[in-house]
Amino acid sequence: MKKVLLTVFLISLFNTTGFTQSNYSVGLNLGLNYTSFRGSDVLDNTNSGFGHLEGLFVEYRIDKRFAINTGLNLDSKSIKYETNYTYTYFDQQKFEVVNERWDVKTTNRYKYLTIPLLLKYSFGKSKCFFVNGGGFISFWQNHTKKSRAINDKGVVIDNYSSSSGNNFPLADDVSSDYGLSFGLGKLFKLDNRNTISVELRDNLGLCNTIEGTFVQGVSGVIKTNSLSLIASWSFCL
Questions:
Q1: Which residues pair with 60 in a beta bridge?
Q2: 223 contacts 206 by C-beta, under 8 angstroms
Q3: CA distance 16 to 27
Q4: What is the per-residue pLDDT across 3-34, written as a single tens digit (0 to 9) for each?
Q5: From CA 91, how far away is CA 94, in angstroms rounded?
Q6: Please, which residues have CB within 8 angstroms of residue 184's CB and are 6 or more apart in sequence?
Q7: Cβ partners under 8 Å of residue 192, min gap 6
Q8: Pair type for strands 46-61 and 223-236
Q9: Which pTM was predicted?
Q10: Where is the Outer membrane protein beta-barrel domain (predicted)?
Q11: What is the DSSP secondary structure assignment for residue 210, as one 8-state letter?
């Protein structure tokens, strides 16, 4: 399904009517992101996590300094949660009550289809540096989670059976997102048509990304923040 969406998006770019080809570039994005949630005390035991992104983009050059950039990225974002509990049982061999402490770490992975819309400004010698700003909208696709448990004796269970108690409240209710984007990067010109760029971009979520927080009695709104390091290849049409 994702490959089909990317193919349709690419075809639509090349079939867009009414543009001057010399002002357009298309390309590929690959990168890593570091995502966190903010805004509520239910997130106290959550930690930021690394994810990845890949996608396509199209850029329209207004003049030598300004350009408009948009595209379609597949984002995988990670949030981690840590908790612990005590398991009590009776050891018949030692004839005593045993208390085992277990630490559980759960990794949540959320996948999105993200569409940015950015205004890009190039500066410096040969216009090789750039900043951009604008907005993004991310459409939620799916959520997977995996838990790992270790006790005070060093016993490890890698595929620990995850329950609601091993994850932060409303972890399964994360939904789509939108917000502001800001970036800073550098271009490396390969030839007259091909360039490579490296960009540090921050996507600051503005909406309550978890539905039902107020209905279920969770205080505050939960918003995202994702810092991405993106490498892009661009081809001038």
A1: 24, 68
A2: yes
A3: 16
A4: 545 554 555 554 544 444 569 999 999 999 99
A5: 6
A6: 129, 130, 131, 199, 200, 201
A7: 236
A8: unpaired
A9: 0.81
A10: 21-210
A11: B
Give the tens place of pLDDT for each residue, 93-126. 878 888 888 888 889 999 999 999 999 999 998 8
Please give the Cα distance from 121 to 130 (Å, whole number): 5
User: What's the rounded Cα separation, in Å, for the pair 107 and 163?
Assistant: 13
Residue 142's nearest CA partner among 222, 215, 74 is 74
- Tracing tokens 């049409």 back to the chain, one arrives at 237
Q: State whether the Cα torsion 219-45-102-96 is positive or negative.
A: negative
> Which amino acid is it at 39?
G
Tokens of 39: 């805004």
Which of 124, 113, 132, 109 has its CA nearest to residue 232?
132
Residue listed under structure tokens 């490959």:
3
* pLDDT tens digits for range 36-54: 998 877 788 889 999 999 9
What is the CB neighbour count within 10 angstroms for residue 119? 13
Q: Which domains does the chain have, with CATH numbers?
A: 25-236 (2.40.160.20)
Half-sphere exposure of 215 (CA within 13 A, CB side): 6
Q: How far is CA 177 from the centre of its chain?
A: 11
User: 221: which residues sit within 8 A by CB, 6+ positions away?
Assistant: 39, 40, 208, 213
Take residue 11 and report the two structure tokens written for it. Answer: 């075809």
Which residue has 């969406």 as its token pair? 5
CB of 171 within 8 A of CB of 145? yes
Do the Cβ atoms of 67 and 38 come closer than 8 Å?
no
